[in-house]
Write a structure and sequence with these properties.
- The protein has 143 residues and is of the alpha+beta class.
- The protein has 5 helices and 2 strands, in the order H-H-E-H-E-H-H.
- The chain has a two-stranded parallel sheet.
- It is globular.
Length: 143
């Protein structure tokens, strides 16, 4: 469900997990053991807030931060690794905000890497590639 490029949105009287088809197979990169580990963690902390906030706000046009370009910035080196099929791109204005470089007004030293066929969970889909990207980034940005 969360590895697709569509955004799962629960209606007002629905929980996000109501959208899950229990008969759907897990993606090849996500095991039953992974599912159990995530389930245990969410059982302890709750599932509502992490899923409710971004998905229920889909209809809102968030756009750029309301601060001016002279507002607070992240000045240090930063790395964003995303899948080209990440459903985050479906949020209004998000793809343009990231791909146009507008985000660099607030994070000027941001390096963005898009992984082909990657979804929202690129770190689980392509762990070796993501780890190498992080190591390379850290090597390039030693102080």
């Amino acid at each position: 469900m969360f590895s697709k490029s569509e955004i799962p949105i629960a209606s007002e009287n629905q929980e996000i997990m109501d959208l899950v088809d229990p008969s759907a197979p897990l993606p090849s990169w996500f095991t039953e053991e992974d599912l159990s580990a995530y389930g245990d963690l969410y059982h302890k902390s709750g599932f509502q807030t992490p899923l409710q906030v971004p998905y229920r706000s889909f209809a809102e046009n968030i756009g750029s931060p309301q601060q001016g370009v002279d507002g607070p910035k992240v000045e240090g080196p930063a790395l964003l690794i995303m899948g080209e099929e990440d459903y985050v791109f479906k949020f209004p204005g998000m793809e343009e905000y990231l791909k146009s470089g507008e985000v660099k007004k607030y994070v000027p030293n941001l390096e963005v890497v898009y992984l082909p066929q990657g979804c929202h969970f690129v770190h689980e889909q392509f762990p070796d590639q993501v780890n190498q990207l992080i190591l390379d980034f850290l090597t390039r940005n030693k102080y």
